[in-house]
Design goal:
With 160 residues, this protein is mainly beta. It folds into 2 domains: 5-34, no CATH class; 61-157, no CATH class. It has one helix spanning 20-34, and strands at residues 5-10, 15-19, 67-69, 72-79, 86-95, 101-105, 115-124, 135-144, 150-153, 156-157.
Length: 160
């Protein structure tokens, strides 16, 4: 049996025959070239970003188009010992409307003073009509704290 050819290109000067294996290899080479990384960003002139713990309430790219609002924190509790690196923070409160979404920025570790400063706020789509009624929420997120650290949520100590 002979080799089956997928492509035959005829030109006055040459005849090109490509088998299935050769076509697959060519496709891989072209696709790898298309998937090459772009230029690396210049991080020397950019401000240092504070590392944060990813959570379901982390800021999202669409937030830039939305309106930032407040959040009414009613109660906070922390589960897990201070010596434990990972603890569970429970936050209970109210959003301004059912259309608002909670956002939390949680640093990955306490600052130099031993304070873990967590920021909470809400965002909403300004083009969306919504009933003006408070929306209760209760969320649990993981936080990392040190033995002697204090946790502040919007400037208020957690658990007190």
């Amino acid at each position: 049996m002979g080799v089956r050819y997928l492509v035959q290109v005829f030109d006055e000067r040459m005849v090109l025959r490509v088998s299935k294996v050769q076509a697959g290899l060519l496709a891989c080479v072209f696709l790898m070239g298309c998937n090459s990384p772009g230029p690396t960003p210049d991080t020397k002139n950019q401000p240092e970003a504070k590392p944060v713990i990813p959570n379901p309430y982390s800021p999202k790219p669409t937030d830039a188009k939305w309106t930032r609002g407040g959040v009414d924190i009613q109660r906070t509790t922390i589960a897990g010992s201070a010596s434990n690196a990972a603890s569970m923070l429970t936050i209970t409160g109210n959003l301004p409307t059912p259309c608002h979404e909670l956002r939390l920025r949680i640093p990955d570790r306490p600052d130099a003073q031993g304070v873990l400063r967590i920021e909470a706020w809400s965002v909403s789509d300004p083009d969306r009509m919504c009933a003006q009624v408070l929306q209760p929420f209760s969320v649990q997120v993981q936080v990392r704290r040190g033995k002697e650290s204090t946790i502040l949520l919007n400037g208020h100590e957690v658990g007190k």
